[in-house]
Amino acid sequence: MAPGRSYPAQCAFTLIELLTVIAIVAVLATLLTTAVASAKKAAHRARCMANLHQLSLALDMYLDDHERRSPDLGHLTSTRYLPSRGTLICPSDKTKNWAGLVEGALPGPVFDNATMALPSSSFAEAAEGSQEPAVPTRPVDRSYLTPLGWDDEAWRKLMKAGGNAGVAACQLHGLGRANLESPSVRDFQGLVLRARRDGAVVRRQIFWDPESPISSAPSEADGFMKARAMVPSFDPGYPWKLFRDDSDTEE
């Protein structure tokens, strides 16, 4: 090196500077991930509410046209009251058939799971006084719980709520995860989206009492009379809690 000649010092990041940059990038990535997840959940809720609104309108039109309830949600698609079966699936439903898993554990009043068709009694009742062809309905995948399978007495008590009566509910935006080995409505709690007969979709917070027993036997004290859509994992008070705010059905 020639005497008297100077060279510029080498420029480089220190370890502290590198760690600071990495920490800032990590924080930004976390914030971005959280924002994306929140936006995705909000989008799922918005689409689910749109589905529930369509279900409410379809059920109300069916009631007006036939003066009786539809035997099931699949019947609404086969009779063109619902344009697509995709309306029956919540985008947050990872099983793509949550209501079918929960309510289909045992043969109910609408479907005979062995034959995948309407039982003869329900079949005749569905066709009575109607010009619709008597064609058995196959179960369809669906995310939304409904009271369509309840017996006449329970259905009439629910309808006493008028436009506020719930006709479909989604609990998949709450807390919890599906137990596929033994699916139960108690797998989820918290936020529930409820479609009412008046077309509105409302939000409710529903939490299950850990002290209350889960029984397959309906109890008059719970106001749940002979609800044939029950399966053993159901709490006797479950339908009223999801489909109307006032659990007192002895009106």
Describe the structure.
With 251 residues, the protein is of the alpha+beta class. It has one domain. The chain has helices at residues 15-66, 73-78, 98-103, 120-127, 152-159, 238-243, and strands at 166-170, 175-176, 188-196, 201-206. Strands 1, 2, 3 and 4 form a 4-stranded antiparallel beta sheet that branches. The chain is elongated. The model is unreliable at 105-131 and 214-235 (pLDDT under 50).
Summarize, please:
With 251 residues, this protein is an alpha+beta fold.
Helices and strands in order:
Layout: H1 15-66, H2 73-78, H3 98-103, H4 120-127, H5 152-159, E1 166-170, E2 175-176, E3 188-196, E4 201-206, H6 238-243
Antiparallel strand pairs: 1-3, 2-3, 3-4
Counting DSSP E segments of at least 2 residues, the number of strands comes to: 4
Percent range of helical residues: 25-40%
Q: If you compute it from the alpha carbons, what radius of gyration comes out, rounded to the nearest whole angstrom?
A: 26 Å
Average pLDDT, rounded to a whole number, is 75
- Tell me, what's the shape? elongated
- SSE succession: HHHHHEEEEH
Which segments are poorly predicted (pLDDT under 50) over 5 or more consecutive residues?
105-131, 214-235
How is the main sheet built? Answer: 4 strands, antiparallel
The count of domains is 1
Sheet/helix structural class:
alpha+beta
In whole angstroms, the N-to-C terminal distance is 103 Å
Per DSSP, the total helix count is 6
- Beta-strand content estimate: 5-15%
